[in-house]
From TrEMBL:
InterPro entries: NTF2-like_dom_sf, SnoaL-like. Residues 14-140 form the SnoaL-like domain. Gene3D superfamilies: 3.10.450.50. This is Nuclear transport factor 2 family protein. Transmembrane segments: none annotated. The lineage of its organism: Bacteria, Bacillati, Actinomycetota, Actinomycetes, Mycobacteriales. It holds the Pfam family SnoaL_4. SUPFAM superfamilies: NTF2-like. It comes from [Mycobacterium] crassicus.
């Protein structure tokens, strides 16, 4: 095997490992937020990361942790809920990446679970400077999939791998 071919294989393996790490990180959001683990949820973001969900803009880990600890969220998990994200489509651009996925929030009712919302989720991610194999969210934008063009444009930009 020549040096060029070996370098190509290493690059391809690195991309696959990066994609898998990002997919795993995104998939962990639901179980962590359903468990109410505010610190672990907040740690998915960079220290100054942004979570923009409809009319709620959270800037920084403290805001994100506060959302998990909020009465509204605690009522959801006390009642019984499931946040499901995925599968994610990931595009890696060196130390930056874009991912997109749909999400579903199920809430327990007397007769079972009901869909409370369906969303489009766009992620801009960056490799952590402290841990090069770890990725963190720079910005997550979530919009309700209600037919509005904003949610559809998140999906289109995410699939195309465009950094917003």
């Amino acid at each position: 095997m020549n040096d060029h071919r070996l370098a190509d294989l290493e690059q391809r393996l690195r991309r696959i490992e990066d994609e898998r790490a990002i997919e795993r990180m995104i998939a962990s959001y639901g179980p962590l937020v359903d468990a109410g683990d505010a610190e672990a949820v907040a740690a998915l973001w960079q220290a100054d990361g942004v979570y923009d969900v409809e009319d709620w803009l959270m800037a920084g880990r403290a805001d994100i942790a506060a959302m998990v600890r909020s009465r509204g969220h605690q009522d959801l998990i006390d009642r019984g809920c499931v946040h499901f994200l995925g599968p994610a489509v990931v595009t890696v651009h060196g130390d930056q990446a874009v991912a997109v996925c749909d999400s579903t929030l199920l809430v327990k009712h007397e007769s079972g679970y009901r869909v409370a919302r369906g969303g489009a989720n766009y992620f801009h991610l960056q490799r952590s400077p402290e841990a090069p194999d770890q990725w963190q969210i720079v910005k997550r934008i979530t919009r309700r999939l209600d037919g509005a063009p904003d949610a559809r444009s998140l999906l289109v930009d995410g699939i195309a791998g465009r950094i917003r």
